[in-house]
Amino acid sequence: MTSEQPSITITHPPEQRLSALPRRILGAMLVVATSVAASGAHANPAQQIQAASWLVVDADSGKTLAEHNVNARREPASLTKLMTAYLALDALKQGTLHWDEKVEIAAADIASVGNDEARMYLAPGQFVQVRDLVRGLIVASANDAALVLAKRIGGSPAGFAKRMNDAAQRLGMRDSHFVSPSGITTPDHYSTAHDLSILARHLNQDFPAFYAFSSQQHFEYGKFAKTNKNRLLGTDPTVDGMKTGHTNAAGWCMVVTAKRRVAGAPEKHRVIAVLLGEPTEKQRLADARKLLDWGFASLGGEHPAANVARRADPQAGERRSAESARML
């Protein structure tokens, strides 16, 4: 006769088995599960992002949260227009340019714009308000708008290029050199992910009116209409800018920003991501979303699902734009 006690198995329905566990054990299980989920959310995204150069930065503190190859000089494509917009907004602030001012379009100013380039179809002899030119520049990425603004602000292409490079040095963009206001492929025209993050932070700090334009999903001028290439607008209501770009030489590029709640902060926090040299437009969008989500997770912030369950709101950007436009 054995001294072992007979084994007894008690079977409960699943919900009874769960409730029978001590609360301390349940609490420990939840902590472990949460830690595992958090570790996945905070894992460095370096192996997931396909951009040739990228970084994600806390816009409020300037702290870089993650980066890859950030000092490599690359073609910035239409991300160049962030600098063009910066100079336009600065001229408006200084009073040397005015929102309601009408600029005459000269044939020479737009002669270099090719049929395959993004444009708002300006025509010689037209008088166009500066407000519409800035909207076309930021929302539609219009190269003709960039050239017209450059001529009006800088007096000539060379004069505006000098202003761009002077501003870059003043802002601390040590590895950037600008030749074109539009970002069309041009020799000796380059920037870096690091430098573009500096420019993005200064736009955010110096000219919050920029978001009145970059948050708009649609642009219309006369018979011309175009949808903003920042496809995160409308699918993630926390996103309100900044700019996309693409050329064969540059690949698919993007500077994107969002504001979300962060644990312990009374107000929403802003994160900026820069991606250069993505292989496809679809990958650019996917990686931009990953970097924003990872950046906020590393700061203890909410995933967009916690805010809106990822419900698309096509009018969200337009409402933000209308509200911001009243400040212009």
Q: Class in CATH?
A: Alpha Beta
Distance between the termini: 93 Å
Q: Structural class, judged by helices and strands? A: alpha+beta
Kindly state the percentage of residues in helix.
40-55%
Q: Count structural domains.
A: 1
CATH topology: Beta-lactamase
| Largest β-sheet summary | 5 strands, antiparallel
Rg estimate, integer Å: 25 Å
Which stretches are poorly predicted, pLDDT < 50 over at least 5 residues?
Answer: 1-41, 306-314, 316-327
- Number of helices, where a helix is a run of at least 4 consecutive DSSP H or I residues: 12
Number of strands: 9
Q: How confident overall, as mean pLDDT?
A: 85
CATH superfamily: DD-peptidase/beta-lactamase superfamily
Order of strands, main sheet, comes to 2-1-9-8-7
SSE ordering = HHEEHEHEHHHHHEEEEEHHH
- Per CATH, the architecture is 3-Layer(aba) Sandwich
Strand portion, in percent? 15-25%
Q: What best-fitting shape do the alpha-carbon axes yield? A: globular
Organism: Burkholderia mayonis
Domain Peptidase S11 D-alanyl-D-alanine carboxypeptidase A N-terminal: 45-279
GO molecular function, one term: serine-type D-Ala-D-Ala carboxypeptidase activity
GO biological process, one term: peptidoglycan biosynthetic process
